[in-house]
Amino acid sequence: MTQHFDLAIVRKVNTITRGNFEVQDINGNILFNAKGFLMHRPKGFLMHRRVLFDAAGKPLVTLQKVRSLHDRWQVFRGEGKDFKDLIFNAKRSSMLQLKTELVVFLANIT
Questions:
Q1: Alpha helix (H) ranges present in 2-50?
Q2: How many angstroms separate the most distant Cα atoms in the chain?
Q3: How far apart are alpha carbons 32 and 52 in whole angstroms?
Q4: Residue 2 resides in a domain
Q5: At 32, phi and psi to the nearest 5?
Q6: How many independent structural domains does the chain possess?
Q7: What DSSP assignment string belongs to 12-67?
Q8: pLDDT per position in the chain (110 positions), as tens?
Q9: Quick one: CA dihedral 78, 79, 83, 86, positive or negative?
Q10: Alpha-carbon distance 71 to 40, whole Å?
Q11: Are 91 and 70 in contact (CB under 8 A)?
Q12: 58-93 b/e with 16+ CB inside 10 Å = b?
């Protein structure tokens, strides 16, 4: 049996959120929080990271943007950033898109 429900992504308009937002149900209950970070990497590259937390504040996954032509993201368990914590990679299927399509590569779990 499939159950559907509506979610809303909420950003505070009057503040600079830097990628922070909440996911709420239709009653306004917070289900998830996301916090974004910019990190400096070697050779002057900036790394975009977001951590998705559950309503209790426990980190669920970390999303890390990798510099590429297809906007590749890596998704890790919890606040992980090592390849042992990698769950999957995702990228746009094409550099030019009218409708977003992603290609997902599951991590090799050994």
A1: none
A2: 51
A3: 7
A4: no
A5: -145, 155
A6: 1
A7: -TTS--TT-EEEEETT--EEEEEEEEEEE-GGG-EEEEEEEEETTS-EEEEEEEE-
A8: 777 777 777 765 554 555 677 888 888 888 888 888 766 556 555 568 889 999 899 999 999 888 777 788 899 999 988 889 999 999 888 877 778 788 898 988 66
A9: positive
A10: 18
A11: yes
A12: ebebbbbeeeeeeebbbbbeeebeeeebbeebebbe
Q: Is the pTM of this model over 0.85?
A: no
Nearest alpha carbon to residue 91 among 100, 103, 99: 103
| Pairwise CA distance, residues 36 & 26, whole Å | 24
Structure tokens at 19: 């990628």
Q: What is the CATH number of the domain that holds 17?
A: 2.40.160.200
Domain span at residue 101 reads: 7-106
